[in-house]
């Protein structure tokens, strides 16, 4: 069953444009997901289709009205919907969330602008997501980031081998990759990779994946249990690192 997505925004072209391009466009053309973009003003109030208003208590900026959101959701929500509010105070979006969303059947993204939403909107949504600790001008780019990460995980979207081994799939960063030329600027591609020995290549990749994670994102290793093989390879990496720093001290 194809994933169905609704995006509620004040700027539909901002969402439609990027989705038509490149790989997301091809995935949508394959029919693996359908994305419908809705102008929130369709549920706006009065002659001017107003969707927001001043904040109670004073302060700069406009806030998205709860009655407008309620009217939109009354039309779009289904029993199988997951309604997602884009919000800097939401749960941090990460690969595990992308996998979870890729298994759902109907996603509704709510993309506020200006100062965000009336707080009573939070009770109308199933999930609040942030794409990082910074503030964007609106939820559209955040929704696009999430949608891109989700639709590429749909079965048949792209080569499944590439999503199985990439960064975060197994809680680790991906191993280094190389292509031609075999020697560039005096730097050679690691010998194991050109050996044609599948088992050695697999082991090298796992070890380098652990090394890269330890060096760049040690936090990912904190909460992750290791297999026996991973534990052994990680111990080797630590020993190599210790030997390299001892050699540096000796050289100094
Ligand atoms: N006043 C809000 C605050 O301080 O949390 C910021 C509002 S921001 C200018 C407008 C909208 O952009 C937000 O309501 C949200 O939908 C979206 N947005 C901004 N940063 C985001 C982030 N890091 N992740 C997800 N959505 C974000």
Explained architecture:
About 25% of the residues are buried. The strands form three sheets. A five-stranded parallel beta sheet has the order 2-1-6-5-7, sandwiched between helices. Strands 3-4 form a two-stranded antiparallel sheet. It folds into two domains: about 5-160, Alpha/beta knot (3-Layer(aba) Sandwich), CATH 3.40.1280.10; about 185-250, tRNA(m1g37)methyltransferase, domain 2 (Trp Operon Repressor, Chain A). It has about 250 residues and is of the alpha/beta class. The model has no long low-confidence stretch (mean pLDDT about 95). α4 packs across α5. It has ten helices and nine strands. Helix content is about 40%, strand content about 20%. α4 (about 95-100) links the parallel β5 and β6 (about 105-110). The protein binds S-adenosylmethionine.
* Count of all domains: 2
**How much strand?**
15-25%
Query: Average pLDDT value?
Result: 95
Read across the widest sheet, the strand sequence of neighbours is: 2-1-6-5-7
CATH architecture level-2 label of the largest domain: 3-Layer(aba) Sandwich
Strand count: 9
Percent helix, as a range, is 40-55%
Topology:
Layout: E1 3-9, H1 12-20, H2 22-29, E2 33-39, E3 52-54, E4 62-64, H3 66-76, E5 81-92, H4 95-102, E6 106-110, E7 127-130, H5 140-151, H6 160-165, E8 183-184, E9 187-188, H7 191-194, H8 198-216, H9 218-222, H10 228-251
Parallel strand pairs: 1-2, 1-6, 5-6, 5-7
Antiparallel strand pairs: 3-4, 8-9
The site of S-adenosylmethionine (SAM) has 19 residues, from strand 5.
């Amino acid at each position: 069953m194809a994933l169905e997505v609704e995006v509620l925004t004040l700027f539909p072209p901002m969402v439609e444009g990027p989705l038509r391009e490149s790989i997301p466009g091809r995935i949508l053309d394959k029919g693996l997901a359908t994305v419908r973009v809705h102008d929130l003003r369709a549920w706006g109030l009065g002659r001017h289709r107003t969707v927001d208003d001043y904040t109670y208590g004073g302060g700069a900026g406009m806030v998205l009205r709860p009655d407008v959101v309620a009217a939109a959701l009354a039309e779009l929500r289904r029993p199988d919907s997951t309604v997602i509010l884009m919000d800097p105070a939401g749960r941090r979006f990460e690969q595990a969330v992308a996998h979870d969303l890729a298994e759902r059947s109907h996603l509704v993204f709510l993309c506020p602008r200006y100062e965000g939403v009336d707080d009573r909107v939070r009770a109308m949504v199933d999930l609040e997501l942030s794409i990082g600790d910074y503030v964007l001008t609106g939820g559209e780019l955040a929704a696009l980031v999430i949608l891109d990460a989700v639709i590429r995980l749909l079965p048949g979207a792209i080569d499944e081998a590439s999503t199985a081994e990439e960064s975060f799939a197994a809680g680790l960063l991906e191993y280094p990759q190389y292509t031609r030329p075999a020697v560039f600027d005096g730097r050679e591609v690691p010998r194991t990779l050109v050996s044609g020995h599948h088992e050695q290549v697999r082991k090298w990749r796992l070890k380098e994946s652990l090394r890269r994670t330890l060096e760049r994102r040690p936090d990912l290793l904190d909460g992750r249990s290791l297999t026996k093989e991973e534990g052994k390879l990680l111990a080797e990496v630590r020993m190599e690192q210790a030997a390299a720093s001892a050699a540096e001290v000796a050289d100094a």
